[in-house]
Design a protein that fits this description.
alpha/beta, 11 helices, nine-stranded mixed β-sheet, elongated, 42% helix, two-stranded antiparallel sheet, 296 residues
Length: 296
């Protein structure tokens, strides 16, 4: 059996794009070359790796067994060029996923410091809600993710790397804005502006605050933090979000922070696929994240 790196690249490319056309464009190969490489790989293995559904190729059980090994082999191959060079920096592209708050308020400084320390400048960043980021990890489209809640998928492993403080915001003329200290009873029958399903801030509200508030209702659901802040500022409801995300709106006087007699702390998590091969670059980034506390 002579499986080539080209065949494995084509295989991984198809898992990430689901069609031969999209995979060929990402790999800078012709569609015919991609189709031939996949056909040769499946012939050598004696198993189809995808289910063909219309024009889409969906990874099947055999393909799922190959994916972690293919990812590891391609990552190991990427380190060979620098293997015998003295003091060579870790090479390759680091594909990082980040949830909204971390991606906008923590990751920029983290990456700047990482680049300064490691002299590595090739990173691809995807910022989205935690649910989508975790699915990208499962599909091996990302190397690692920094999210605002622990991942519960069996294929993923999570470790705390930092912490965050949440806050409740209200329009500046809201009746509760005049009170110095609030209890959950003050929020009975309140309306809330929430992020979409899958976001860390929504999860924190639903699990930590909502069960203790009687008769609360959702006023609006939004998929960006800035939209949430604007809706709160315009009187559409209260909001629960990271203090990092709310800091500029609070400073500018667009909204008012409400002080609830309740812990508003949460943790930031470093998440990876349990079978992900940790090449030297990925190991350096993981170690850096655990040692670097940007929220002091």
């Amino acid at each position: 059996m002579n499986i080539s790196l080209k065949q494995l690249k084509v295989f991984v490319g198809i898992t990430q794009h689901s069609t031969l056309t999209a995979a060929s464009e990402s790999l800078f190969l012709s569609k015919a070359a991609v189709s031939m490489a996949l056909s040769e790989l499946e012939k050598q293995l004696g198993h189809p790796l995808f289910d063909r559904v219309n024009n889409r190729l969906l990874l099947n059980q055999e393909g799922q067994k190959l994916l972690p090994l293919a990812d590891e082999l391609l990552n190991r191959a990427n380190t060979i060029d620098n293997l015998f060079l003295d003091n060579a920096p870790a090479s390759g592209t680091l594909k990082i996923g980040a949830s909204d708050t971390i991606g906008n308020h923590v990751l920029p400084a983290l990456l700047s410091n990482f680049r300064a320390q490691q002299q590595h400048y090739s990173q691809q960043i995807l910022i989205s809600n935690s649910t989508l980021i975790c699915q990208k990890l499962i599909d091996y489209e990302l190397d690692i993710a920094l999210i605002e809640g622990q991942a519960h998928q069996s294929d993923l492993v999570s470790n705390v790397f930092s912490h965050d403080a949440m806050c409740i915001i209200a329009p500046i003329n809201h009746p509760l804005a005049a009170k110095k200290q609030l209890s959950f009873n003050d929020f009975n029958s309140s309306q809330w502006v929430l992020r979409e399903t899958g976001s860390g801030s929504r999860s924190f509200f639903l699990h930590s605050l909502a069960p203790q508030i009687k008769n609360w209702t959702q006023s609006v659901e939004l998929n960006t933090t800035e939209a949430l802040i604007n809706c709160v500022a315009n009187g559409l409801g209260l909001g629960c979000l990271s203090s990092l995300a709310a800091q500029y709106a609070l400073k500018d006087g667009r909204v008012k922070q409400l002080n609830l007699n309740h812990s508003m702390q949460r943790q930031f998590w470093l998440v990876m696929h349990k079978d992900k091969y940790k090449n030297p670059l990925l190991k350096q980034f993981i170690e850096f994240c655990h040692k670097r506390n940007l929220l002091k």
